[in-house]
Write a structure and sequence with these properties.
The N terminus is likely disordered. Helix 2 crosses helix 3, helix 2 runs antiparallel to helix 8 and helix 3 packs across helix 4. By secondary structure, the protein is α/β, with parallel strands linked by helices. The radius of gyration is 37 Å and the shape is elongated. The longest helix is centred in the C-terminal third of the chain and has 24 residues. It has a 6-stranded mixed β-sheet with strand order 6-7-8-4-9-10, with helices on both faces. Strand 2 and strand 3 form a beta hairpin. It contains 11 helices and 12 strands.
Amino acid sequence: MAALGTLGMQYDDVPASPVICIQDAYKSYGSHQALAGVNLSVYPGTIFALLGPSGCGKTTLVNAIVGRSDLDAGSIFTSLKDLKEIGFMPQDISLFTRLSVRENMRFYGYLHNLDADEIERRSKYLSDLLALPPFSRCPLNLSGGQQRRVSLAVALLHDPKVLILDEPTVGLDPILSKNFWDRLREMANQGKTVVLTTHYIEEARQADRIGLMRNGKMLTQDTPLALLKEHNTDYLEDVFLALCYQENNKTSRKISKEETSFSKVRTFEKPKRISLSRIKAQLLKNFYVLKNNLVLTIFGLMLPFVLNICAKIAFAHDPYYLPLAIVNEEFPGSVENCPRTFTNSCILSNPEMMASCIFLNELKNRTYVMVNDFQYDLALIYISAYTIFQSEVMNSSTCK
C-alpha cells in the first residue's frame, strides 16, 4: 500500500483492508490544535461521514488526505497508487463562474489528461446522473444546488475511486439534499468510496459509517445503528452529547511536535514539472475567459496603444522656451562663428567638422532660449537667474 505523501511509516504496518487509514494525526495552527491524535479507517464501497461542529478539524483532516496540507505528526496510508484516483469537492464552489459548464468540464478534464472525446462522454453521463443544468449556462447564473451538482460532476469527471466531499450539502434545501444523498448511494453501490464532512447530525444517519469529531479529536467511529444501539437511544444527537460529556470528564494530555517522532515519506510518483495537458488546459481557459469577456479583451488590446499615445503627448515633444546657456570648449571662438558646412558622412573621421557646432546649429531650429559664450560657473548663475525671473513673471500674470 502507499502513503499519501504527508507523514509515513513502513508499509508492513499498514492495514490491508481500508482504502484510507489515518494514524495519530496531529496538526496545529499556532496555539490552536486542529487535530489531536486522530485515527480513522475508511473501507471500500462505503460512505464515511465525518460529523462534528464547525472548527472541530473536519476540513483540516480532508485537506491532509488530499495533500493540500501536511500533518505535523502522524501517518496517512491509502491503497491508491495515484492521487488522480481521488476526486475532491471543496466546501467553496471552485468553479470558474464566468465560464460555461461545458468549458469548466473541458478545463478540468484536460488537467486530468483526458482527451476531448472522453471529456464529452463523461460529461454527458454525469449530466444524466446528476441532472446538471444546460452546459451553455455559467455557474454565475446557477442556483446554489445547481452549482454544487456541477462541482460534484467536476470531481467525478476523471472517474476517481475515492470521492472526498467537504460540507457538500451546506445551503441546500431538504429536497436537493435528499437527491444529493441518493446520488452518493448510487456511487457507493457502484464500488466507489465516499468520504464527506457535515455538521448536520441526522443527515449523517444515511452514511455507512460515522466518525464523530470534537475539538480536533475523534470521539468514536462506527455504523449509525451500532452507535444508537450502544447508547440505547434513537437519536444521534444523544449519542454525540453523551460522548462529549465523557470527553469533558477525561484528562487529556497535550502532545507537542517535539514529543512525536516522525519522518516525511513520499511514495506517490511526483508529477512532471512540465505537463503538456496542463499547459493546454491553462491556454484553453485563458481563451475562454477572453472570449466570454469581450470588453476586457478589447480593453487589454487597446491599453498599450492608449499608453503610447499618452506618453507621446506628455513627453515626446520639445520643451518650449527652455533656457540653455552654451558652454562650448571644443570651439575657441564664438558659437556664432561656427562653420556652416554640413555632411552626411561620419563627423568623427573629418577633423574639419566640429561636432558641437553641428549639434548647436540643430538646437537653433528648436524652441529653446540660447545664450552663447558662457563660462561654466556663469552659465549656472544665468540659468538660476532666468528660472527665478520666469517664475516671477508667471506669478505676476496670475495675480492680475
